[in-house]
Amino acid sequence: NAGVTQTPKFRVLKTGQSMTLLCAQDMNHEYMYWYRQDPGMGLRLIHYSVGEGTTAKGEVPDGYNVSRLKKQNFLLGLESAAPSQTSVYFCASSFGLSGNTIYFGEGSWLTVV
Amino acid sequence: AQSVTQLDSHVSVSEGTPVLLRCNYSSSYSPSLFWYVQHPNKGLQLLLKYTSAATLVKGINGFEAEFKKSETSFHLTKPSAHMSDAAEYFCALFTGGGNKLTFGTGTQLKVEL
């Protein structure tokens, strides 16, 4: 049972390069999320999706785009990477909102130089 | 607006002594509250959650938390710390007024011999 899987786990980018982080979940969850984690700031929501074909902005969406073409996948794109986007990125999913548990992937470490 | 405040960024205890990690919340709606644990270089794992049932919630690994509406608190406790409890702990809040989970900034728990 894989749960939530993120690829790649580690990546170093040069300023201005683009890349895509892939998240896949095998729990048939409707909701998927992308968070970033920075020291002393906890986790901040970048974008989320409440179902296939939908996306919405979170707290810190600037510089990122997302797509949810298939229910099980949620892609996070950086069109032109900046050093401020150096962070650990976590994908998560859940059946719904409220009391439903959110399940996290193991993280993707991104460094922009 | 909803928010979560973890009152201590670092807590240090001796093995075998009690653990107390403090969390206060602010919400205009009835909250669902969660505690997650993150071990180094890993994703977040759910410890326990409160969703308007019993106010004393028991979780995994001997942890429990008590929801106190009058104090807007959801502190995490464990009677006896173990070396394996050393990790970062995050309190999180979900309310119907938002569409996301709001995280605190985390508490790093250190367990000493």
Task: Give an overview of the whole structure.
- The complex is a heterodimer of chains A (113) and B (113).
- Helices cover 0% and strands 51% of the residues of chain A.
- Chain A is mainly beta.
- In chain A, strands 2, 4, 5, 6, 9, 10 and 11 form a seven-stranded mixed beta sheet that branches.
- In chain A, a hairpin with a 6-residue loop joins β5 and β6.
- Chain B is an all-beta fold and 113 residues long.
- Chain B has strands spanning 3-6, 10-14, 19-21, 23-26, 31-38, 44-50, 56-58, 64-68, 73-78, 87-95, 101-103, 107-112.
Write the layout of secondary structure elements.
The complex is a heterodimer of chains A (113) and B (113).
Chain A: E1 4-7, E2 10-13, E3 19-25, E4 31-38, E5 42-49, E6 56-57, E7 64-67, E8 73-78, E9 87-94, E10 103-104, E11 108-112
Parallel strand pairs in A: 2-11
Antiparallel strand pairs in A: 1-3, 3-8, 4-5, 4-9, 5-6, 7-8, 9-10, 9-11
Chain B: E1 3-6, E2 10-14, E3 19-21, E4 23-26, E5 31-38, E6 44-50, E7 56-58, E8 64-68, E9 73-78, E10 87-95, E11 101-103, E12 107-112
Parallel strand pairs in B: 2-12
Antiparallel strand pairs in B: 1-4, 3-9, 5-6, 5-10, 7-8, 8-9, 10-11, 10-12
Q: Summed up, what is this model?
A:
Chain A contains no helices and 11 strands.
Q: Quickly give the structural class of chain B.
A: mainly beta
User: In one word, what is the shape of chain B?
Assistant: globular
Uncertain regions spanning at least 5 consecutive residues of chain B? none
- Count up the helices of chain A: 0
The helix-and-strand class of chain A reads mainly beta
- Report the helical percentage of chain B: under 10%
Mean of the pLDDT scores of chain A? Answer: 93
Rg result of chain A: 13 Å
